[in-house]
TrEMBL record:
Keywords in alphabetical order: Phosphoprotein
Region spans: Disordered: 19-54
Annotated organism of origin: Acyrthosiphon pisum (Pea aphid)
Gene that this polypeptide is encoded by: ACYPI007649
Family per record: Belongs to the phosducin family.
UniProt record, GO biological process: regulation of G protein-coupled receptor signaling pathway
UniProt biased composition (Basic and acidic residues): 26-39
Name this protein carries in UniProt: ACYPI007649 protein
Residue span(s) of domain Phosducin: 91-238
Keyword check for Phosphoprotein: yes
Pfam family membership, one: Phosducin
InterPro entries in alphabetical order: Phosducin, Phosducin-like_reg, Phosducin_N_dom_sf, Phosducin_thioredoxin-like_dom, Thioredoxin-like_sf
Length: 253
């Protein structure tokens, strides 16, 4: 049953970061000082040609400085313009806000259309597990408790799920005996109680030996908070503000 165990637990991917930054070349802290460009009417060169050359060089330096000043002014103007939104940009923001509101309403409507359960389903075989996970409404979260008999913490978890299934009736809670599904001996001894969460047939939560997080003495509220923190259950107190504002506006009409 290696395939079933892989389906139950999913694949754990290992990510790493490689730091291979090379030392950047040292930059001079003090740039070389530019020579004074103001021309005082004297020349280091002698003769008319030398004076003309110095004058032309001075004019070129003045022109370069003027061009640089103009570039600096344009840069400041552009930087200031970036902080001001145009009318078109404001319209785009309004459009995006309306689009997000529409998509949120559609998603919440789909969730409301999902079936209600209100009980814990017993899965007797591995096939029962596959059917429960893969044939369910894609907007329904399926939580499977893999457990063993005669394990006190597994009994506590089953009791907690009986409470949570009544509170979260649009979440499908199931329980599966690991030995009946052909799980490995190591998993049956060291991996339970385990909570596995699926949505649209995909593993979205994998909490093997969850007592490492909850301890050996826990309650339904502890399990609920844990699943909310990990994004498996939705916190009912955190209704999106975009929908709250919509409801308030409807009440004002």
């Amino acid at each position: 049953m290696a395939d079933l165990e892989s389906k139950l637990l999913g694949e754990k991917l290992h990510y790493y970061c490689s730091s291979s930054d090379e030392d950047e070349p040292m930059l001079d802290r003090d740039p070389p000082k530019q020579s004074k460009s103001d021309w005082d009417g004297t020349s280091s060169n002698t003769g008319p040609k030398g004076v003309l050359n110095d004058w032309e060089q001075y004019k070129r330096q003045q022109s370069a400085q003027r061009i640089q000043r103009e570039k600096d002014v344009l840069k400041q103007i552009n930087d200031m313009a970036l902080t001001c939104k145009s009318e078109a940009e404001e319209l785009d923001d309004q459009f995006l806000a309306e689009y997000r509101k529409k998509r949120m309403k559609e998603m919440m409507a789909k969730t409301q259309e999902a079936p209600e359960f209100g009980k814990v389903f017993d899965l007797l075989t591995g096939d029962d597990f596959l059917v429960a996970v893969e044939n369910e409404n894609p907007y329904v979260t399926v939580i499977v408790h893999v457990y063993e008999h005669n394990v006190p913490t597994c009994s506590i978890m089953n009791s907690c799920l009986k409470v949570l299934c009544r509170e979260f009736q649009k979440t499908k809670f199931c329980k599966l005996i690991g030995s009946s599904a052909g799980m490995s001996l190591n998993f049956k001894m060291c991996g339970v109680p385990a909570l596995l969460a699926y949505r649209a047939g995909q593993l979205v939560g994998n909490f093997v030996r969850i007592t490492d997080e909850l301890g050996d003495d826990f309650y339904a509220g502890d399990v609920e908070n844990f699943l909310i923190e990990h994004g498996v259950l939705s916190d009912k107190s955190c209704i999106p503000s975009i929908m709250t504002n919509e409801n308030d506006n409807d009440d004002d009409i």
